[in-house]
């Protein structure tokens, strides 16, 4: 199995949309900056925490390969952030509004996507999807989370989760496992059931533009610090709520609506010095899938 298998199945599910991202096809660009606290320096010698402000290129998006996805759907929203430090080095973040991923491995996720394809009669078989979920329980935590939480009322009124484990590495080579999340300073505001019925399919980009007329929107970048026993290779599971949470800095979103994020590949394995990927197989395969999607869309495929 390779990253290309995912591109194939995304294109089968959503149809071909030349020049568009094969995942998270619908989205909006934004720009801002990241200001670190002192805390990151305790764990990592990354310039992200020691060299002041970084410039932020951001993209908010709807999950899936459909560029016309409904923004009231019970599906994840995504954020891509490319942080460029004073010395020119780059750190990417690409996370979802769900704290977990629908499968403990690329194989389980690919199998789930395949059950969503129409059968020979041209129908999506709901009982096949239920059976697959039953046989592969690691697909359930995200499904249950999406049923229990209405979608956000704005791209900036919801938490985003890095989902995978990463490592901080300090100057002595000491590693600390963590998972990142972005938490809006103003708190979360989700759609009501009535709004989910009434709102049009497209409102999020416009809402973001309107909100930014009032001034920047601030997010805290937090790290959940893992314990020895916390798994690093299963993105379908959260670590216990009791884990220590530290604030790494503030992401301020200043403006939106240009095309500056289009030529960006928010590959989540492009990390600053002092931060390393874990052994999560889903994290690993993302780089190939993103590179293929990036190459295709920039060449008009
Ligand atoms: C096997 C697992 C996954 C596959 C195959 C996959 C595939 C993709 C692809 C092909 C794109 C479009 C990339 C581009 O054209 O630049 C994309 C975008 C994205 N994915 Fe994934 N993804 C996976 C898992 C995840 C996970 C675990 C997260 C969150 C932790 C995530 C968050 C995002 C976000 C936020 C974007 C939009 C980035 C942007 O705006 O450019 N994905 N994904």
From TrEMBL:
Organism domain of life: Bacteria
PROSITE patterns: CATALASE_3
Residue ranges occupied by any Catalase core domain in the UniProt entry: 2-301
GO MF annotation list: peroxidase activity
InterPro entries listed in its UniProt record: Catalase, Catalase_core, Catalase_sf, Catalase_SrpA-type_pred
This protein's UniProt keywords: Heme, Iron, Metal-binding, Oxidoreductase, Peroxidase
Gene3D superfamilies linked to this entry: 1.20.1280.120, Catalase core domain (2.40.180.10)
EC number: 1.11.1.6
Family stated for the protein in its record: Belongs to the catalase family.
Protein name as it appears in the record: catalase
Organism: Shewanella colwelliana (Alteromonas colwelliana)
């Amino acid at each position: 199995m390779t990253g290309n298998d995912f591109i194939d199945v995304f294109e089968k599910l959503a149809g071909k949309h030349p020049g568009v991202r094969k995942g998270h096809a619908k989205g909006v660009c934004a720009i801002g900056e990241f200001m670190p606290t002192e805390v990151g320096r305790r764990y990592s010698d990354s310039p992200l925490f020691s060299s002041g402000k970084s410039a932020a290129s951001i993209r908010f998006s709807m999950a899936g390969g459909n560029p016309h996805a409904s923004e009231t759907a019970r599906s994840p929203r995504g954020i891509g952030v490319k942080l460029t430090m004073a010395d020119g080095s780059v750190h990417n973040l690409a996370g979802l509004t769900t704290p977990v991923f629908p499968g403990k491995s690329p194989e389980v996720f690919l199998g789930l996507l395949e059950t969503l394809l129409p059968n020979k009669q041209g129908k999506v078989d709901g009982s096949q999807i239920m059976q697959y979920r039953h046989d592969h329980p690691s697909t359930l935590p995200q499904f249950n989370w999406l049923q229990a939480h209405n979608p956000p009322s704005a791209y900036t009124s919801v938490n985003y989760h890095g989902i995978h484990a990463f490592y901080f590495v300090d100057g002595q080579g000491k590693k600390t496992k963590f998972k990142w999340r972005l938490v809006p300073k103003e708190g979360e505001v989700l759609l009501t059931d009535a709004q989910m019925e009434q709102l049009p399919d497209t409102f999020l980009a416009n809402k973001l533009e309107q909100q930014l007329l009032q001034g920047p929107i601030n997010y805290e970048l937090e790290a959940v610090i893992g314990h020895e026993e916390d798994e690093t290779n299963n993105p379908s599971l959260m670590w216990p709520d009791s884990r220590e949470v530290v604030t790494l800095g503030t992401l301020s979103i200043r403006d939106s609506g240009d095309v500056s994020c289009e030529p960006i590949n928010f590959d989540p394995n492009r990390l600053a010095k002092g931060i390393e990927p874990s052994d999560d197989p889903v994290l690993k395969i993302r780089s190939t899938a993103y590179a293929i999607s990036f190459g295709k869309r920039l060449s008009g495929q």
